């Protein structure tokens, strides 16, 4: 049996002149410049990564179309997770148009930036998410701990919608503090639902300066024990990662966190889960 492809299940590109990256304040000045496929390729080669999932970084359909266009130029982009307005009455038509591009695998509303924690449970949003599921698309959940119970309620109501929790739901671990029982309980409730998955990504940024395997292990060990390797996927969150470290350091720390696992579990986390969840074609 052949070894699954190595997949970075969460990375970004952007072109600043496009003008829709509202979150790029002076706080992220270090990455506020064009970052495109040629910038990531050396890291992929160095770490023998076969493909990536490119994830939205702006709340605009135009950015989704931009990412799809990049996938035609950079064949390592195996899937795109875009954005649609889930409150738009014409969302079904937008989804129909976008899904003509088979590289589009999912959508991601920027829930962390929406003040109303319960927004995703609004009836018209739930209906739009049903439209997402009906088209075989997945949902990337960009959430923080306040969303965990709401996300579980949504997942229970839409069992046909496959959901992946980005960045382990961004637990509060700055400086290496314990992520807390509320986070653990919320993730355990989500893991009990068969349509939910989780990305081991973004944790360096949540831990902040000085992050290391010891700081991150309580989070990683908890999602390992609750979701299991078959519902976990590894991602770099590059280039946001560069605000806290770099690609090689994240790979090295990931090895410290996951290297004790059996080979089949590591193969799942480093590519097999993402390939199956997103339906990636890794034959190229």
Please describe the topology of this protein.
Blueprint: E1 7-11, H1 37-46, E2 51-55, H2 61-73, E3 77-82, H3 91-98, E4 104-107, H4 123-134, E5 138-141, H5 148-157, E6 163-165, H6 181-191, E7 196-200, H7 203-207, H8 213-227, E8 232-234, H9 247-258, H10 263-278
Parallel strand pairs: 1-2, 2-3, 3-4, 4-5, 5-6, 6-7, 7-8
Main attributes of the structure:
284 residues, alpha/beta, TIM Barrel, eight-stranded parallel β-sheet, 39% helix, 12% strand, globular
Q: What would you note in describing this structure?
A:
- The chain has 284 residues and is α/β, with parallel strands linked by helices.
- The chain has one domain (7-278): TIM Barrel (Alpha-Beta Barrel), CATH 3.20.20.
- It is built from ten helices and eight strands.
- The two termini are 18 Å apart.
Q: How many DSSP helices?
A: 10
In quaternary terms, these chains amount to: single chain
pLDDT averaged over residues: 97
Distance between the ends: 18 Å
What is the count of distinct domains?
1
The CATH class designation is Alpha Beta
Secondary-structure class: alpha/beta
**Could you name the CATH topology?**
TIM Barrel
């Amino acid at each position: 049996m052949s070894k699954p492809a190595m997949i970075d299940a969460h990375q970004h590109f952007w072109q600043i002149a496009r003008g829709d990256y509202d979150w790029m304040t002076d706080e992220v000045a270090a990455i506020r410049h064009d970052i495109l496929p040629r910038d990531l390729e050396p890291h992929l080669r160095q770490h023998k990564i076969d493909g990536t999932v490119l994830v939205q970084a702006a709340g605009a359909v135009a950015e989704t179309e931009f990412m799809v266009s990049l996938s035609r130029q950079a064949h390592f982009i195996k899937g795109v997770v875009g954005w649609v307005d889930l409150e738009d009455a014409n969302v079904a038509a937008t989804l129909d148009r976008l899904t003509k591009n088979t590289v589009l695998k999912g959508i991601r509303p920027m829930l962390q930036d929406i003040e109303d924690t319960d927004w995703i449970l609004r009836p018209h949003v739930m209906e739009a998410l049903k439209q997402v599921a009906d088209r075989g698309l997945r949902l990337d959940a960009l959430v923080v701990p306040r969303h965990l119970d709401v996300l579980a309620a949504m997942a229970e109501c839409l069992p046909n919608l496959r959901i992946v929790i980005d960045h382990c739901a961004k637990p509060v671990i700055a400086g290496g503090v314990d992520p807390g029982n509320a986070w653990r309980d919320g993730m355990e409730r989500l893991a009990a639902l068969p349509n939910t998955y989780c990305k081991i990504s973004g944790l360096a940024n949540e831990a902040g300066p000085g992050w290391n395997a010891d700081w991150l292990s309580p989070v990683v060990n908890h999602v390992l024990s609750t979701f299991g390797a078959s519902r976990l996927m590894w991602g770099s969150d590059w280039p946001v990662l560069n605000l806290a470290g770099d690609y090689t350091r994240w790979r090295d720390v990931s090895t410290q966190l996951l290297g004790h696992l059996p080979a089949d579990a590591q193969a799942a986390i480093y590519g097999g889960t993402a390939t199956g969840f997103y339906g990636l074609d890794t034959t190229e």
